[in-house]
Specification:
By secondary structure, the protein is an alpha/beta fold. The protein folds into 2 domains: 4-156, Rossmann fold (3-Layer(aba) Sandwich), CATH 3.40.50; 171-260, Orthogonal Bundle (ProC C-terminal domain-like fold), CATH 1.10.3730. It contains 12 helices and 8 strands. Strands 3-2-1-4-5-6-7-8 form an 8-stranded mixed beta sheet, sandwiched between helices. It binds 1,4-dihydronicotinamide adenine dinucleotide (NAI) and (2S)-3,4-dihydro-2H-pyrrole-2-carboxylic acid. (2S)-3,4-dihydro-2H-pyrrole-2-carboxylic acid binds at residues 95, 165, 169-170.
Length: 268
């Protein structure tokens, strides 16, 4: 894999870098971070990254991966305008910034817009990828190589990226919230916090593995837990009566609406 430079060393950058090193990718990885230089030093020790500056990253990386918050992106694009070359590939993980913003600010530079998730950390990301207008097959292969190393990938069109984000990009947070509420339910029923946490987490791990390995659909797996007139049915009936489907659909829609709002804000 070519030399990669990360601009931004937050949660998402660390998850990807950790994943790349975990699968044995030994390419040069340069990283710059505006805040928290201690974190950069720690990452140098843990993942053999080279703490760097934006200027050096532009000089020495074939792939530049933008991992700053959307509000900081326009500033970074301005900083990149002078020295970036069309032989370099730009990959952005930012939510809510359309491809045209990158292409207007950096004409002629190939850009791939991606939406991974933080499970890159454990090589289980689900990453959506969208190709920009000057992206060739070799650029697609370069982007795919990074994200296939840290999980599964799916090429889609840009109009589907916000729907994808509302499922797999933000989705881990929904699962963590559900886990938190399950732990709290256990505590409310009299279990200790420690026991409730172990029960909820192990249940989530087991169910995830069943989804992955059993070859059965989620509906079929649910039915196998649910005895007629039994305890599970009593619990599921509460989810249905309170319209869990409506809650989840509305949450995914809110996620997409916010992304669209950001896209209007950041299209400059
Ligand atoms: N956290 C997540 O689950 C996901 C995040 N994303 C996207 O990833 C991007 C980063 O998100 P997080 O890692 O969660 O944010 P974060 O806040 O943890 O990290 C961003 C980092 O960028 C640094 N930074 C800001 N401006 C900079 C500059 N000019 N030069 C160098 N470093 C700079 C900050 O100091 C910070 O450490 C966002 O655009 C977000 O939309 C995408 C998918 C999932
Ligand atoms: O919350 C956010 O905006 C980012 C995008 C997907 C996950 N986290």
């Amino acid at each position: 894999m070519q030399a990669i430079g990360f601009i931004g060393a937050g949660n998402m950058a660390e998850a990807i870098i950790r994943g790349l090193r975990a699968v044995g990718i030994s390419s040069e990885i340069r990283v710059t971070n505006r805040s928290n230089q201690e974190k950069l030093q720690k990452m140098a020790e843990q993942y053999m990254i080279i703490p760097s500056t934006l200027e050096k990253i532009v000089k020495e990386s074939e792939i530049i991966l933008l991992a700053v918050k959307p509000k900081d992106m326009l500033g970074v694009l301005k900083d990149l305008q002078k020295d970036l070359k069309s032989s370099q590939l730009l990959i952005t993980v930012a939510a809510g910034i359309p491809l045209k913003t990158y292409e207007m600010n950096l004409p002629g530079i190939p850009v791939v817009r991606v939406m991974p998730n933080t499970s890159s950390y454990v090589l289980k990301s689900m990453t959506g990828l969208v190709q920009g207008s000057v992206v060739h097959e070799n650029h697609k292969r370069m982007a795919e190589e990074i994200f296939q190393a840290v999980g599964k990938t799916l090429w889609i069109t840009e109009d589907k990226l916000n729907p994808l984000m509302s499922i797999s990009g933000s989705g881990p947070a929904y699962i963590y919230l559900f886990t938190e509420t399950l732990i709290q339910a256990g505590v409310s029923s009299g279990l200790s916090e420690v026991d409730a946490e172990m029960l909820a987490k192990e249940t989530l791990f087991g169910a995830s593995q069943m989804l992955q390995e059993s070859g059965k659909s989620p509906a079929r797996l649910r039915e196998e837990v649910t005895s007629p007139k039994g305890t599970t049915l009593a619990a599921l009936t509460v989810f249905w009566e309170k319209d869990l489907q409506d809650i989840v659909t509305s949450a995914a829609k809110a996620c997409q609406d916010r992304a669209e709002e950001m896209e209007r804000e950041y299209q400059g």
